[in-house]
Amino acid sequence: MLSRATTVVVALLAVGLGIATPAEAAPKITSVASRSESVSTGTWAATASLTSMTFTANSNQLSTITNTGTIALSAVTYKITVSNPTSGTPTFTLFTCAVAWVSGKCSGGAGTQIGGTFAKNSTTTVTSTQVPPLSGAVYLQVEPASVTTSVTVTLGTSITSPTQLRASIKTNQ
What we know:
Blueprint: H1 4-17, E1 46-48, E2 52-55, E3 61-67, E4 76-82, E5 91-97, E6 112-119, E7 122-128, E8 137-145, E9 151-158
Antiparallel strand pairs: 1-3, 2-9, 3-8, 4-7, 4-9, 5-6, 5-8
């Protein structure tokens, strides 16, 4: 009679070779979580390719947010500051997309709006759960309305640990 370990090895080899094995010889894999794990070292970061945008007309502008850290994210906070132009009452909206914008469209749609409308002479903080994957990016589009004179929008990113870090994967090792 073969030992259980030998049976498992034979069954795995048979599967690898494409040989059918009886059901009782198939390995049974079970696992039990023995403890929680947490991140002890690592970095979290989401950086914007463009942080300051000057608008003189109602033309959209883009920024790419890249996850330059080593820890996956579950949310990113954006701080949007709109300057106080000499005249007019411009407003801005912010949209995110998982792929690069093409002709003002996100995969044929409008993208996902983050927050509401941002007015002149304001600073607003909003959170988005559409995040860049590790070494990947999400794409932002700032859309102006009623721009009649030069106005600047400043975009900052931040991550609040641990609430905006992806939950760690639990393993039994």
